[in-house]
Specification:
Layout: E1 5-14, E2 17-23, E3 33-34, E4 37-39, H1 46-58, E5 62-73, E6 78-87, E7 100-106, H2 118-132
Bound molecules: ligand 9L3 and magnesium ion.
Length: about 130
């Protein structure tokens, strides 16, 4: 079986809005929007990896809530898993510290206003469908 490396992405929901982050690197992805996150490192659980990535990238103290069902292929060998997350009380507000140059909190009717990475579109669709059904 081919090895797969999980990339974890965050559906950070705040007051009914979804956080989107605009990548500043690498050049082929710069300017496109994504669910922030990154690669799970050896020895980490996906939850630990996502909390670490959000601390590094956005400066926040986030708590992973639950997995959004599904998995979405990225450039091999990566595969995207998405989790809903929320900010712990006392967390700083998200800021684009690393790898991003802009953040937006998208209301439900603004979700498709940004140019999501191709690979994130299906994941975002799943996140939005679940928002509507809760
Ligand atoms: N990726 C795609 N969508 C996402 C994330 C967090 C990552 N929501 C892709 C971009 C990179 C790879 O996964 O090719 C690793 O991500 P990172 O560690 O550069 O954030
Ligand atoms: Mg990242």
């Amino acid at each position: 079986m081919t090895e797969r490396i999980v990339v974890v992405g965050a559906a950070l929901l705040d007051g009914g809005r979804l956080l989107a982050a605009r990548r500043s690197a690498p050049p082929e992805l710069a300017g496109r929007w994504e669910l922030p996150g990154g690669k799970v490192e050896p020895g980490e659980t996906p939850e630990q990896a996502l909390e670490r990535e959000l601390r590094e990238e956005l400066g926040v103290d986030a708590e992973v809530v639950e997995r959004v069902p599904g998995e979405w292929p990225l450039k091999a060998p990566y595969i995207l898993h998405v989790w809903t997350v929320r900010l712990r009380p006392g967390s700083a507000e998200p800021a684009p510290l690393e790898d991003h140059d802009a953040l937006r909190r998208l209301a439900p009717d603004e979700i498709w206003d940004v140019d999501w990475l191709d690979q994130d579109v299906a994941a975002v669709r799943e996140v939005v469908a679940r928002l509507r059904s809760t």
